């Protein structure tokens, strides 16, 4: 009996030792596979950047350089202050035509430098044009006999944050000119009296404004548009149109523009529905449409995570995985929510679950001063995670952003495009991750079907989160804008597949149109 027990003990010890060795080997294999996956991801990102640069070089070969388009001072400001050495193909085409005095409606990819497409022609024209003599107001009393602001160039943008960003770029460029034009910022969130005092000098030549505050100053007689030579409307679809058509502020703004003089108009944006394009053609009959094939850049990776359990738990898991990814961990990230209350709840959740996360919160109810400080901290890398609503989905340029997370799916393709455009800017790679709950399936199908004014948004058959292969070759403006999009797997008899009960992603195999097996994270 003793020998039998000894043999059993030895055999059990051998089994335990064998199991321990097996577990150790599995751990080593898992670590090695993780390292290989990181290497593959790094190689894929490098290939994306190389392909984008190669495509850009092919596109700009034979196109003019900045020194062939603008004055030497502006070219040097681009080179030395902004590290921009040559225009991309879209910029070269738009600048050439805008500098020739054409009216343009420019629809270009997010991150393609649309701000320069209207600021450079404006500053070039102000540089070559003598400033007009100051105009006095027509009030009767002596106190009202002050100089009026009479800008020659006007930029209208939809939000205060975007106006501040455009003004910063304009100041960088204008400071290089021998006689820099005075630039005025007219937005909500700033003291009205401060703006009023700035206008009394009468020497503002370039005004960057949001519609509501601009109209208020016009009604108060603090500025006039009678001597306006150029007007640019950035994010034109957001400034001019509401859900039910052209909005009231846009109507008042268009009526305030001078009719007697020849006014050059530049409209820019990343999205333009056919109905909006037709309305713009009716309002601005001389405007020529200039667009880029494909709205999202080819260096943008997209993935959808289908969640049946607690979405907040999946968000925490996603952030933890991002923190373990060396490339994502080096950059910043933006988390988009459906509204102010949702953003507030997500911010409180992350502050409790991930207290070491350097984080800021911005939404429509955030005071202007707090917004400015949060965005400045984000730009200075003091904050690495920005939780926000769609108040920040347009135009803002933060080169450090590598990951955009849609905690709530956007309501339409246009919003998805603008959210995604906060990363993968200027030829750099970026990742957009979207969390999808069962009640958001209709929104998900609209995104993957591309129901945007009747324009189809084609699905990619690549792996979720992998690089798009043909987005740069798209002929349809919205084609190739969503990657990794397939229907959730349906449960067969006796099966439970598709939605993850505990919100953890599970691998699922699907088949694309060619019969090739592809992996999806569910």
From TrEMBL:
Domain Helicase C-terminal, first and last residues per copy: 310-475
Chain intervals with Basic and acidic residues compositional bias: 493-516
PROSITE patterns assigned to the protein according to its UniProt record, in alphabetical order: HELICASE_ATP_BIND_1, HELICASE_CTER
Top-level taxon: Eukaryota
Region Disordered, annotated ranges: 454-522
Domain Helicase ATP-binding span(s) in chain numbering: 95-290
This protein's GO CC annotations: cytosol
GO molecular-function term, one example from the UniProt record: nucleic acid binding
Keywords from the UniProt entry: ATP-binding, Coiled coil, Helicase, Hydrolase, Nucleotide-binding
Residue spans of biased composition, Polar residues class: 467-477
Coiled coil: 31-58
Protein name: Dead-box ATP-dependent RNA helicase
């Amino acid at each position: 009996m003793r020998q039998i027990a000894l043999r059993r003990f030895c055999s059990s010890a051998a089994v335990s030792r064998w199991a321990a060795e097996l577990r150790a080997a599995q751990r080593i294999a898992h670590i090695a596979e993780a390292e290989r996956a990181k290497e593959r991801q790094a190689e894929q990102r490098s290939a994306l950047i190389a392909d984008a640069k190669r495509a850009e070089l092919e596109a700009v070969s034979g196109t003019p350089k900045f020194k062939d388009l603008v004055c030497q001072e502006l070219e040097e400001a681009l080179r030395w202050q902004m590290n921009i050495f040559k225009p991309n193909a879209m910029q070269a085409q738009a600048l050439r035509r805008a500098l020739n005095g054409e009216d343009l409606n420019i629809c270009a990819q997010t991150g393609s430098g649309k701000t320069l497409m209207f600021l450079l022609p404006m500053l070039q024209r102000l540089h070559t044009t003598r400033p007009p003599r100051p105009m006095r107001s027509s009030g009767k009393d002596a106190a009202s006999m002050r100089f009026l602001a009479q800008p020659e160039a006007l930029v209208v943008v939809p939000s205060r944050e975007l106006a501040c960003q455009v003004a910063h770029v304009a100041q960088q460029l204008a400071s290089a000119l021998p006689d820099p034009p005075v630039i005025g910022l007219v937005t909500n969130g700033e003291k009205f009296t401060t703006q009023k005092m700035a206008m009394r000098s009468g020497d503002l030549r370039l005004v960057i404004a949001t519609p509501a505050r601009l109209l208020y100053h016009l009604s108060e007689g603090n500025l006039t548009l009678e001597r306006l030579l150029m007007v640019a409307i950035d994010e034109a679809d957001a400034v001019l149109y509401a859900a039910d058509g052209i909005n009231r502020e846009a109507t008042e703004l268009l009526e305030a523009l001078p009719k007697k003089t020849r006014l050059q108009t530049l409209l820019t944006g990343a999205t333009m529905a056919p109905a909006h394009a037709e309305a713009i053609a009716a309002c601005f009959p001389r405007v020529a449409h200039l667009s880029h094939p494909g709205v999202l850049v080819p260096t943008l990776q997209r993935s959808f995570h289908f969640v049946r359990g607690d979405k907040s738990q999946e968000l925490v898991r996603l952030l933890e995985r991002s923190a373990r990814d060396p490339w994502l961990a080096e950059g910043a990230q933006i988390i988009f929510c459906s509204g102010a209350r949702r953003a507030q709840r997500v911010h409180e959740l992350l502050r409790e679950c991930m207290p070491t996360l350097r984080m800021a919160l911005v939404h429509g109810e955030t005071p202007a001063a707090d917004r400015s400080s949060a965005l400045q901290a984000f730009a200075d890398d003091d904050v690495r995670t920005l939780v926000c609503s769609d108040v920040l989905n347009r135009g803002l340029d933060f080169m450090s952003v590598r990951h955009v997370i849609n905690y709530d799916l956007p309501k339409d393709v246009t919003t998805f495009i603008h959210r995604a455009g906060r990363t993968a800017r200027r030829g750099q790679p970026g990742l957009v991750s979207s969390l999808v709950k069962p009640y958001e399936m209709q929104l998900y199908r609209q995104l993957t079907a591309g129901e945007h004014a009747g324009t189809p948004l084609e699905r990619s058959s690549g792996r979720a989160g992998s690089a798009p292969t043909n987005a740069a070759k798209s002929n349809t403006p919205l084609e190739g804008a969503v990657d990794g999009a397939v229907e959730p797997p349906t449960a067969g008899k006796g099966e439970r597949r598709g939605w993850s009960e505990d919100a953890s992603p599970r691998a699922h195999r699907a088949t694309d149109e060619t019969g090739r097996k592809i992996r999806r994270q569910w």
